[in-house]
Design goal:
Number of domains: 1
Oligomer: single chain
Strand content: 25-35%
Helix content: 25-40%
CATH superfamily: GTP cyclohydrolase I, C-terminal domain/NADPH-dependent 7-cyano-7-deazaguanine reductase, N-terminal domain
Shape: elongated
CATH architecture: 2-Layer Sandwich
Order of helices and strands: HEHEEHHEHHEE
Number of strands: 6
Mean pLDDT: 84
Structural class: alpha+beta
CATH class: Alpha Beta
Radius of gyration: 20 Å
CATH topology: GTP Cyclohydrolase I, domain 2
Largest sheet: 4 strands, antiparallel
C-alpha cells in the first residue's frame, strides 16, 4: 500500500475538505529590459522587478507528490475511500490529458513565461503586465486567478523616485498579506 493510500484511509476526508486552493507566488524577479514610452528608455533600458501571484486548485496534490497526476491512479485511490473524481470536483478530459493532469502551477514555468514577455520591448508597462497575465492564463488550465505587478526601478522622471509600478489581474485572486518587499 502506498503512503498516500494509507494516509487517505487514516484521515478519511469528506469531499468538502478536499476542495484545496493554493497561492503560488514569485516575488522580486529582476529583469533588465527596454520598456518605456520615451525613446531613451527604449535605447538605454532599465531594471524591472516582477511579482506574480497565482491562485490554483491543488486537490490532486493530496494524491501525488508530483507536478502531474494520472487520473486513473487517483480514481483508484478514491475508490478505496468510496469516493470519486466527481466528488472532489475533478472532471475528466481527453484520455492523453488525464494521464498527465497538472496538480499545481510550476513556478519555474511561471518564471520562463515572465522572462519571455519581458524580452519583448513595449511602450507601456500596462501592455507588459497584460501580456504576462494572459500568457499565464493561456498556458495553465488550472489557474483560477492571477495578479502581476511590474515595477520600473528609478524611473527617469527628473527627481528621485524609487519605482513606478502597474498591476493587472485576471479571474479570482486572493493575495496573502505577508512576504518581503521587492
Amino acid at each position: 500500500m502506498a503512503i498516500s493510500e494509507a494516509l487517505f484511509l487514516i484521515f478519511e476526508p469528506s469531499p468538502t475538505e478536499l476542495q484545496l486552493m493554493a497561492t503560488i507566488a514569485l516575488e522580486g524577479m529582476r529583469f533588465f529590459a527596454y520598456h518605456g514610452y520615451y525613446e531613451e528608455e527604449q535605447i538605454l533600458g532599465n531594471e524591472f522587478v516582477v511579482d506574480i501571484f497565482v491562485n490554483t486548485e491543488t486537490i490532486l496534490t493530496k494524491f501525488t507528490d508530483d507536478l502531474h497526476a494520472d487520473l486513473d491512479q487517483v480514481e483508484e485511490l478514491l475508490k478505496a475511500g468510496e469516493m470519486s473524481l466527481k466528488a472532489i470536483g475533478v472532471k475528466r478530459g481527453k484520455p492523453d490529458d488525464d494521464k498527465h493532469r497538472p496538480t499545481t502551477v510550476n513556478y519555474e514555468t511561471l518564471y520562463l513565461l515572465c522572462q519571455k514577455e519581458m524580452r519583448e520591448p513595449a511602450h507601456l508597462l500596462e501592455t507588459v503586465v497584460d501580456k504576462i497575465a494572459d500568457s499565464i492564463t493561456d498556458y495553465f488550465d488550472n489557474v483560477e486567478g492571477v495578479l502581476v505587478r511590474l515595477k520600473k526601478l528609478n524611473p527617469p522622471l527628473g527627481g528621485r523616485v524609487a519605482s513606478a509600478w502597474v498591476m493587472a489581474s485576471r479571474g479570482e485572486i486572493e493575495i496573502p498579506m505577508f512576504g518581503g518587499e521587492s
